[in-house]
Structure formats: structure tokens, C-alpha cells
Write a structure and sequence with these properties.
The protein is α/β, with parallel strands linked by helices. The chain folds into two domains: 2-225, P-loop containing nucleotide triphosphate hydrolases (Rossmann fold), CATH 3.40.50; 242-358, no CATH class. It is 33% helix and 21% strand. The chain has helices spanning 46-53, 79-88, 107-117, 123-136, 153-165, 183-200, 211-217, 235-240, 245-252, 260-264, 315-318, 344-358, and strands at residues 2-15, 18-31, 35-39, 61-69, 72-73, 90-93, 171-175, 203-208, 220-225, 228-234, 304-305, 311-312. The strands form two sheets. Strands 6-7-8-3-9-10-12-11 form an eight-stranded mixed beta sheet, sandwiched between helices. Strands 2-1-4-5 form a four-stranded antiparallel beta sheet, with helices on one face. Strand 7, helix 6 and strand 8 (203-208) form a beta-alpha-beta unit. Helix 4 crosses helix 5 and helix 5 packs parallel to helix 6 (183-200). The radius of gyration is 22 Å and the shape is globular. The N and C termini lie far apart (47 Å). The chain binds adenosine-5'-triphosphate, iron/sulfur cluster and magnesium ion (MG). Iron/sulfur cluster binds next to helix 11.
Length: 359
Amino acid sequence: MTLLELDDLSVTYRIASGEVPAVRGVSLTLDSGAALGVAGESGSGKSTLAMALLRLLPRDARVGGRILLGGEDVLAMSWGRMRAVRWAEASIVFQGAQHGLNPVRRIGDQIAEPLLVHGLAKPDAARKRVAELLDQVGLPAWRSRSYPHELSGGQRQRVMIAMALACSPRLIIADEPTTALDVMVQAQVLTLIKDLVAEHGISLIMISHDLSVLADVCDQLAVMYAGRVVEHGPSGEVFHEARHPYSRALAAAFPTVGDPLSRMAPKGLGGDPPDPMQLPSGCSFHPRCPVVLDECATLDVDLWPAGPGRTAACVHVRSDASVPDASVPDASVNEQAGTTDAPVDAVDAQAVEAKEEAS
Ligand SMILES: Nc1ncnc2c1ncn2[C@@H]1O[C@H](COP(=O)(O)OP(=O)(O)OP(=O)(O)O)[C@@H](O)[C@H]1O
Ligand code: SF4
Ligand SMILES: [Mg+2]
């Protein structure tokens, strides 16, 4: 059963110097109990998309399209209904949210707050529920009396997850839930989220720039570039056999767990993501694309079928040819210069050479 449906969702921020089209025509669905990963570089619109789902955007943001949560039109909800939906039906764990805990209130009181505000429990029952939630996220009940500064970053993030679970929502949106945590704690928190959503049948939208993390936790992956979804499909397939050159570059940018060689030969993508106020014409990725064609600068790109249950916004997919593998230049070419880091210019030069050779 479909829990969440986004239809042509767009978000534009109005700022003094003009308009920032942060999310552009995103259509996605999420089934009950399923997990969707949203990946993309910094500025690709991931957090804007997440905040739009619960109408948490600032006033200067104009939202278009449609968001249906459990069949209800989120953009048409009254503020009263919207407040009831937040926490109780869908909750969000923000990017770096552990820093957002109130430093002068005990952990237990902060976890109990959504339960009390939504009238879901009386104080005694809320205390019991807090102990239960702390147990679910692997913290002892006595921690409810602690203040945030008495906990580590990983423990604080566990508290945020307990808060998100408090009202038994049907959907949790986790925006970079492990950013700023060390790798060991990151793995623990990810395993925790994965287990909790599976155990309670909660739907999950997890946002990260790290495709490998998303592929591990989520069933489906959507890759965003410049506010648009450029590839979507089953997570293992998108991660291991991406059809869009940008997804390939993103997948190759992280070392493979258990493969030490991949750590020594990182692959990267040259250039910076585009300024949303000055988007390139045609396919927004064309100035950075290692397999660009002449037509890409004027092409009206769309998400085209790219295999069973998959779509990708690339002309190579539309013409039903496989995407040439020059898409991810190998950063190890710099090893002779004594470094495995890939300076952007060097990667660009390699990509241009590869293209010239191919043509
Ligand atoms: N309140 C705002 N006002 C104006 N522009 C904004 C605002 N918030 C975000 N933006 C712009 O919208 C675009 C998308 O930002 P967003 O925070 O959604 O990206 P992101 O993919 O979450 O990036 P990151 O990985 O760095 O968190 C960026 O160009 C950003 O500068
Ligand atoms: S449409 Fe063209 S520029 Fe865009 S990703 Fe495909 S080949 Fe590259
Ligand atoms: Mg973000």
C-alpha cells in the first residue's frame, strides 16, 4: 500500500537577489514499511525535499505540486491537522539534530514532550514509555535523568531517534542521521535505525550523500542532482549498476567496505554542483558529464525507463544504449605524482581526454 506520494513537487526559495529553485519536479512514491534512500551532493535539494514533506520550510519558500500522506493532501492540511501529523504520523530526525536538544532540560522530559503535547499519554504513562524508548535505542532507563551535555554524540543521536519513535509514527525521515559521528558509532546508529523500522513496520526516508550507506539500509534509491531526481530504482542495482553517469560517480566516490584496494584508488568527479540560480541549459549535469553529447546542452531531459522498476534522466538511457564507462575518471592516475587525491582540474583533464579518445 502506498503511504507517501510526491507528484511533481517543487520548492523555490525567494531571496533578495532572486529565486532559488531548490527542488524541481520530483515525483516519488513510498510504500508502507518500505525504505527509500535519497542521495546527492551538497545543495542538491535533499533537506529541502524532506522539510517540504512536513511543511517545515521557511515562509519565503514556495511549494508546488502535490504531497499525499496516507492519501491526505499535506499541502492542503489546516495548521491544526499539520501539527497532529508531525510526530504522530511522520517524524523527522534532522541533519546534526543532536545539537538541537535543549541543553537545560533532561533527556527524559524532552522525549516525553511529543507524547504529552499530542495528548497521547498522561505523565506517568509517558515516563514508562520513555524508559521503553530508551531501551529500544540501546540506552539505560536512568539516562532519562541526564542532560544532553552528559551524553556522547552517538548517544544524543540515539535520543533523537527515540524522540522520532515516541508517537509511533508511520513514517520517519532521517536527514543525514549519522553525519559528524565516527565510523563505529555511525554503523551502530544505522543498524539501530534499520532494525527499528523493520521491527515496527515503519516507512523510512533516509537522506545521505553516501550511496553505500543508503544501499545498505534502503530498498529503493533516488539520486538527486540540482533539485531533480536523475535516477531511481532498487538500491542494489542503482548502487552497483548505475545507469546515470552522475550516480556512477557518486557510487564510485566512496571506498567499498571490505575492499582495501578501493581506498587506495578513490574515484571522483570534477567540478562543482551548479548554482541553482544559474542552472546550465539542457541536462543540468552536462558541464561535468564525462559522456556528454552535443545535444545534451539543449536536451529536454526526463526520467526515462532504464530497466525493470528503474528510471534515469540520461540521453544514453533514452536511446537504450548502455552508458559509456568513461563516466568516472580514476583518481589513482595521480599516484605517480605522489598522491591519491584527485585535484578537480586533473580529473577534468582526464575526463576530457577520455571523451576525446572515445569520439
Ligand atoms: N532558507 C533558504 N533560503 C534560500 N536558499 C536556500 C535555503 N535553504 C536551502 N537553500 C538552497 O537550496 C538548495 C538546496 O539546499 P538543501 O539544503 O536542500 O541541499 P542538501 O542537498 O540538503 O545539501 P547538504 O547535503 O549540504 O545538506 C541550495 O542551493 C541551498 O543554498
Ligand atoms: S543527458 Fe547528456 S549530459 Fe546528461 S547525463 Fe546523460 S550524457 Fe551526460
Ligand atoms: Mg541537507
